[in-house]
Design goal:
TIM Barrel, seven-stranded antiparallel β-sheet, Immunoglobulin-like, alpha/beta, 3 domains, globular
Length: about 550
């Protein structure tokens, strides 16, 4: 057969498949998992994400450090030349890799599932695919890493997930006139992953395009669910899938559709020597915020070139596991709500018990809105004697300052009925929450980083400025003259070196507080100020400043 004719026949077949798949009703079984299959995942709350490959030899970011034309991304800024990057696998020999140890580490952290990068955008396959030579079994290591991870997870009782990038900057047919041939390759590899490694619980796509036609996603979803009937699929292949995947931020409270935040334990997805490692407080509070928002945390590590997970990261994960052994009942098997506390924490519930997770206390007591249920008993699970007063106008929770846990104070409230019947209620002490905000500069004029993101009572969003900006201001209109004597400022990235807080009197701005660095959370107290317009004036920053929250309050 003429090769050109063969390509056209394959192209026609793919297009017909896409058209036919598009004709299916939105509620076709293959488009979404059954509720029973989602239950284990929502109960689990915590999983391990692993980004790893030959690029660990360089200590740079996986895929994104590869130079050359990316075909679907306009910025070819990778620092490693293509010829060098694509041949790193010839030196890759992680002789200390032990999948059983990885599983043991995950379990010691209290994690219930593991998602491994079988193929990232760079196209390198960590499994013995019969469709390419660019794979781990052609490296000096020669072993099928995915097979060993699957075996270890199955033996260790850890649920198994496969990350797979539909994008492939290495494949010669990807995003070319021969793209239909690439779709054949893509589907063929997914069939291998869903056939050769036993039960697979999650397929975690990471597409750079939201167009399902680019991957023929309806056909792909259908055969994946035929091969693995109980599998969960994320939304990054152009179809909604089974859960949302906010990246490098805690998702907002959402109890109408499952979600999972994927977040790195350091700054980089893949291994980087001397990478920062999040503190114990940051790690636990990230998990708690996810659970309180009714979501999961997929926490990422980047193993070293040897195949070992870096000891600093292992130690942090073990610390999280120790915390969960004490307080896991307030996380596992719970749902988020009903109290949404914004920057101060949140709550989870199970049956008739609500678990308040208080991450940041007011000076005296925490005030909560009223709920349509009676609190019949209460106790602090982290020490000390709590006091809870319930009236028709709300609930007041107090605990001596010496008994407040620096990571998470947990107070259990037992109700006279199921907590699931209570509608979620929002509580915020911030006077800036939801107020109109303006700024001198916004990163690429994007609404995703606008000034409103710094006054939404959500530490996972942020106002950001353009790179190179070293001075900027954020202004809030409180709506009317308001009295306050406290401020909380949170910086998403440590860049601010000098700032002042100002209020407007007529046409003049008057400074009432000054400071240097801000960091993750800076609490300021000052003499009472009454004003309508307030400005955070950043006088000096190392680069474009970015602020998660500017909150004002009255003691």
């Amino acid at each position: 057969m003429d090769m050109r004719m063969g390509r056209w026949i394959r192209l026609a077949a793919v297009m017909l498949a896409v058209f036919a798949a598009g004709a299916f009703a939105a509620d076709e079984d293959y488009l979404k998992a059954k509720p029973a299959d989602l239950q284990w995942w929502q109960d689990a709350r915590f999983g391990l994400f692993v980004h790893w490959g030959p690029v660990s030899l360089k200590g740079t970011e996986i895929s994104w450090s590869r130079g050359g034309n990316r075909k679907d991304y306009p910025d070819p800024s990778g620092k490693i030349p293509v010829e060098e990057y694509d041949n790193l696998y010839k030196q890759f020999n992680p002789t200390k890799f032990d999948a059983r140890k990885w599983v043991e580490i995950a379990k010691s952290a209290g994690m219930k599932y593991l998602v491994f990068t079988t193929k990232h955008h760079d196209g390198f396959c960590e499994f013995d695919s019969k469709l390419t030579d660019y794979k781990i079994t052609n490296s000096p290591f020669k072993r099928d890493i995915v097979a060993e991870i699957a075996k270890a997870c199955h033996a260790g009782g850890l649920r198994l997930g496969f990350y797979y990038s539909p994008a492939d900057w290495h494949h010669p047919d990807y995003r070319t006139a021969n793209h239909p041939r690439y779709i054949e390759y893509l589907h063929g590899q997914l069939r291998e992953l869903c056939t050769n490694y036993g039960k697979v619980d999650i397929i975690w796509f990471d597409s750079l395009s939201g167009d399902p036609k680019l991957w023929d996603s309806p056909t792909m979803f259908k055969f994946i669910r035929e091969l693995q009937p109980h599998i969960l699929i994320n939304p990054r292949a152009g179809l909604p899938g089974d859960f949302d995947t906010p990246e490098q931020e805690v998702g907002k409270f959402q109890n109408t559709r499952p979600w999972e935040s994927c977040i790195t334990i350091g700054d980089q997805w893949a291994y980087r020597p001397n990478d920062n490692v999040k503190s114990m407080q940051q790690c636990v509070q990230t998990l708690v915020r996810c659970a309180c928002g009714d979501g999961n945390l997929l926490f990422n590590v980047g193993p070293m070139p040897t195949g070992e997970i870096e000891p600093r990261q292992v130690e942090r994960l073990k610390e999280m596991g120790q915390w969960l052994r004490k307080h896991g009942k307030t996380i596992y098997g719970t749902r988020g709500g009903p109290f949404i506390l914004g920057s101060r924490g949140g709550s989870t519930y199970s049956g008739d018990t609500v678990y308040l997770h208080i991450l940041d206390w007011p000076e005296d007591a925490l005030s909560l809105p009223p709920i349509g249920a009676k609190i019949v008993s209460f106790r602090s699970l982290t020490g000390g004697k709590a006091e809870v007063k319930q009236t028709a106008s709300g609930i007041e929770v107090s605990l001596p300052e010496k008994d407040r846990d620096p990571i998470d104070t947990i107070i259990a409230l037992k109700l006279d009925g199921p907590a699931s019947k209570i509608e979620p209620v929002r509580s915020s002490l911030s006077l800036t929450s939801g107020k109109k905000a303006t700024a001198s500069n916004v990163y690429q004029k994007s609404g995703d980083f606008g000034p409103s993101k710094a006054v939404d009572d959500d530490f996972t969003t942020r106002w950001a400025t353009d790179s190179g900006v070293q001075a900027a201001w954020l202004e809030v209109d409180l709506g009317s003259a308001t009295t306050f004597d406290r401020a909380l400022i949170s910086e998403a990235i440590d860049r601010v070196q000098e700032f002042e807080l100002q209020c407007r009197e007529g046409e003049e701005w008057k400074t009432f507080a000054r400071g240097t660095t801000i960091g993750n959370k800076l609490n300021l107290k000052f003499e009472p100020v009454t004003a309508r317009f307030v400005r955070l004036n950043i006088l000096k920053a190392t680069d474009g400043p970015t602020i998660s929250e500017l909150q004002l309050a009255k003691s």
